[in-house]
Amino acid sequence: MLKLSIFIILALLTAVFILSNTHIAKVNFIRWEVEMPTFLLLIIILIIGIVLGFIAAKAKKKK
Fold first, then answer.
1. Strand, helix or coil at 7?
2. What are 25's strand-pairing partners?
3. Would you give the end-to-end CA distance of the chain in angstroms?
């Protein structure tokens, strides 16, 4: 129950943080350049982090 409560609190804080950042950000990666809302950039980074976390957890279980 404690893990679920911590997860819900962190998820809500993350949502508030993401939704409060609505200005446009310029993103440069190698030669790729794009302008997008900051909340969209944060969501993309969050999804990448979750995917990498799942991959790392699965790789650790296989050992």
1. helix
2. 36
3. 29
Check if the beta carbon of residue 25 is closer than 8 Å to that of residue 35.
Answer: yes
pLDDT at site 63: 67
Residues in CB range of 27: below 8 A, 6 or more apart: 33, 34, 35, 36, 41
User: Can you say how many angstroms the Cα of residue 16 is from the centroid of all Cα atoms in its chain?
Assistant: 13
Of 17, 20, 57, 22, the C-alpha closest to 36 is 22
- Number of residues assigned to the chain: 63
Q: Convert the pLDDT of each residue in 6-62 to its tens digit.
A: 999 999 998 898 888 889 999 898 888 999 998 888 889 989 999 999 999 998 887
